[in-house]
Amino acid sequence: MSIRLRLTLLYTAILALTLTVFGAALYNVQAQSTYGREERALAEWVRLVVAHRMGGYSRGPQVPVIPPFPIEEAPWPRRAGNRAVYTQVLDADGRVLIRSENLEGFTLPISDLGLQALRRGEPWMEMVTIDGEKFLTRSVPVVVRGRVIEIVQVARSVADQERYLSTLRRVLVVGGAVAVAFAFVSGWIMAGVVLRPIHRITQTARAIGEARDLSRRVQYGGPNDELGELATTFNTMLAQLEQAYKQQQQFVADVSHELRTPLTTLRGNLGLLRREPPISDEDRAEVLSDMEDECERLIRLVNNLLTLARAEARRSFQREPIQVTPLLEEVCRQAGLLDPDRQIICNPGSDIVVLADRDALKQILLILLDNALKHTAGEVTVSAALERGRVLLSVRDRGPGIEAERLPHIFERFSPVKGGSSGPNTGLGLAIAKSLVEAQGGTITVTSQSGQGSVFTVSLPSAGGI
After folding, report:
1. Does 390 score more than 50 pLDDT?
2. Which of 130, 167, 306, 370 is 20 to 30 A from residue 68's alpha carbon, by CA?
3. How far apart are CA 399 and CA 160, in angstroms?
4. Across the chain, which distance is largest between two alpha carbons, in Å?
């Protein structure tokens, strides 16, 4: 079942329930009001009859007949025909004693429950049917010296009231049915209009999947409501997917480019080794040495790619409090083995504790130091500082600096390196460092001035001296 149909059915069901409750309440109010007027009129009429009968008993043993009240004395306006009041008097056993002239041919019935209540001296009101026509009857006992002597019954036809209430029922039922049907149709149309942006989003997503075109966007011109936020969020997601897809394509192209050179070199050297006549022993030794270097370069490239993939996948790191001083001293000692002739100054500070993964943090610092040693000359300084609950680890060099146009792209994969380079480079080191830092909730920045060198700064949460 579609959302559109569910919304329409829900809206229709709520309206139907509301109309049912309202119609039932209206009908009950009208019925009580209509029959209430009749009951009050009958109560007044039977009061007059009972008073007349009681007066007759007080004047002597002669039991008078039903009083011939003129129509003007009735407690309701004069009506014709079926508005007549029918009166009869019963004895305590329910046998008819006397009745009004308009009761010729039939008798007002009384139920067994009503007769029992009247014998107990309680008045009784009930609806009876005579010849297919409904009458409202009220019966009151005439009590003399604590004993029920007679039962006075008055009745009046409620055919007009029944027709009115029947008409009201039909109007409420038919009108409610029409309203519910109209609500279903209008709700279906409104739900379609409201859900149209979602339908467009679905069609766009399907078209994007079929055409693999991430440049398409959902067109939405409505208000900035929930659907507007959904369309905006979907477009934002498409933009991010498009960017990621382009980065993936660029990454594949860059990797292919980086792999092509060593593989081409290896293939050419293999061709030299298989050449007839054979090359000299000296040339063979150089070719083998060249092939070994290219194999090591391929190994480094694959290892760096694997590290970068793990870092960007945000693999879980075991972050724990780490004393900065011994870590920096260890990193500086190991980095000194890469270039024994370069001076590495270590300023670890004192009592600084960082919350990080030790192996990942060590790899980050070694990448930054290796980058400084390969592409700059002069001394390199490694320092640590505590600022506003963050530990700042800096690697400063005294090289020529980084061009301003390259700074925004310095942490991108296979970023081209200009300037002197004293060793092999895959162009992935700084990208790996950035991913490792961000995976631990930190940031890495670089500042550089021409002729004054560069400073790479890693900011990580402090462990608060834990």
Report:
1. yes
2. 130
3. 109
4. 162
Q: Please tell me the number of Cα atoms within 13 Å of 409 on its side-chain side.
A: 11
Sheet holding 390-397, edge to edge: 344-347, 380-387, 390-397, 453-461, 443-449
Rounding to the nearest 10 degrees, give the CA dihedral for residues 55, 61, 66, 69.
Answer: -40
Cβ atoms < 10 Å from Cβ of 283:
13
Q: 25 falls in which pLDDT band (50, 70, 90)?
A: very high
Distances (CA, A) of 428 to 318, 361, 410: 24, 17, 10
Nearest 5°: the CA angle 143, 145, 147 is 50
The secondary structure of 407-424 as a DSSP string is GGGTTSTT----S---S-
- Paired residues of 127 in beta bridges: 136
State the residue for tokens 């000359």: 377
C-alpha to C-alpha distance for 466 and 463, rounded to whole angstroms: 6
Residue-wise pLDDT tens digits, 347-370 = 888 888 999 988 889 888 988 998
> Taking the model in full, what pTM does it have?
0.49
For residue range 41-71, list pLDDT tens digits in order: 888 888 888 887 776 554 444 444 444 444 3
Mapping DSSP to helix (H, G, I), strand (E, B) and coil, where does residue 299 land? helix
Please enumerate, as own/partner, the contacts of 212-219 that have beta carbons within 8 Å and a separation of 24 or more: 214/238, 214/241, 214/242, 214/245, 215/242
Beta pairing class for 133-144 and 443-449? unpaired
Collapsed DSSP state (helix, strand, coil) of residue 454:
strand
Q: What is the dihedral of CA 173, 179, 184, 189, to 10 degrees?
A: 170
Paired tokens of 451: 């002729």
Place of tokens 């083995």: 337
Decide if 432 contacts 307 (C-beta within 8 A).
yes
Assigned token pair, 76 = 């309701």
Q: How far apart are CA 288 and CA 284, in angstroms?
A: 6
Q: What is the residue-wise DSSP string for 326-366?
A: HHHHHHHHHHHTT-TTS-EEEE--SS-EEEE-HHHHHHHHH
Nearest to 90 by CA among 142, 125, 48, 130: 142
Q: What residue has token string 């290219």? A: 294
Domains in the chain and their CATH numbers?
A: 3-165 (3.30.450.20), 226-310 (1.10.287.130), 317-461 (3.30.565.10)
* Residues 64, 67: Cα–Cα separation, whole Å: 8
